[in-house]
Design brief:
By secondary structure, this protein is of the alpha+beta class. Helix content is 26%, strand content 31%.
């Protein structure tokens, strides 16, 4: 099973305060443990929401809202994508994150078998293309900026309502176009928060809170890893995405937040950093 471990933002990361060498070294060691256990699939941090944008589509109109966004505790600062045998194992990995404070949300991903085969499904339809996409993901293009597209949840996604064949085909066609254009690197759906948990950190203490979680509008229903040459290009593609997404959503409304990744070059090299340290 695959799980997202979503790191909740803090005032410091929203202010652009970079982690110190001690924290980076501890996280680097934690990442090494994940790799040795065969659990780590991906890990990344996001820049502050002041560098991001939210794109909303409702009643045939687009609304673009520039960051920063006020609800710091519900913003995402980064994530781990791991594979674990069970929810319990994933939570145990989350409890081992070397944080002294903050919160990480653990959510299982949807896998292809979670979507029942529809009688109207074509043999060469969205499912086959999704399998091909996962087997050979696109390559990173030089000169581009990576963004995370964060799709907001609604009452239907939180209730576990699956999209119909028409919607899946339309979204599959959009993703296929994005892959061919070299802008979509990956994309996944998250299962409802009722299947997840949150781990809260206070010094060495770990508190586990089982889902579901009440703040539906700030929960995440899915995400995509994207690459663009500019923020303007990112916004235009996100407009197209929410327009495709809206017909399958509650109230025919869709909102997606796009945030640039923190790349290695964004982390200043500290004087205490060892040549082979920090997981670089």
């Amino acid at each position: 099973m695959r799980f997202m471990m979503l790191v909740k933002a803090s005032k410091d990361c929203e202010a652009g305060v970079l982690p110190d060498e001690k924290i980076l070294s501890e996280i680097g060691k934690y990442n090494e443990d994940l790799v040795k256990a065969g659990a780590l699939l991906a890990v990344d941090g996001l820049q502050a929401s002041s560098k991001g944008v939210r794109v909303r589509y409702s009643n045939g109109k687009f609304t673009v809202i520039d960051g920063p966004f006020a609800e710091t505790k519900e913003l995402i600062a980064g994530f781990w994508l791991i594979q674990a045998k069970s929810r319990e194992e994933a939570i145990e990995w989350a409890k081992r994150v070397p944080f002294q404070e903050g919160e990480v949300e653990v959510r299982p991903l949807f896998e292809l078998p979670d979507f029942p085969v529809d009688p109207a499904e074509k043999p060469d339809g969205w499912r086959e293309k999704e399998e091909q996409f996962r087997a050979a993901p696109p390559a990173r293009k030089p000169g581009t900026i990576r963004y995370m597209g964060i799709l907001k949840a609604d009452k239907d996604t939180e209730a576990g309502v699956l999209p119909d064949e028409k919607f899946l085909s339309a979204m599959g066609a959009f993703f296929e176009e994005g892959v061919k254009a070299g802008v979509i690197l990956s994309g996944e759906g998250l299962q409802p928060s009722s299947k997840g948990a949150r781990v809260r950190y206070s010094g060495s203490k770990r508190t586990v809170i089982d889902g579901p979680f009440a703040e539906t509008k700030e929960l995440i229903a899915g995400y995509a890893i994207l690459q663009f040459t500019s923020k303007a290009e990112a916004i235009e593609w996100t407009k197209r995405f929410v327009q495709v997404d809206a017909p399958g959503r509650l109230g025919a409304e869709s909102e997606c937040e796009i945030r640039p990744f923190s790349e290695l070059e964004d982390l200043l090299v500290g004087p205490a950093e060892k040549r082979d340290g920090g997981g670089r």
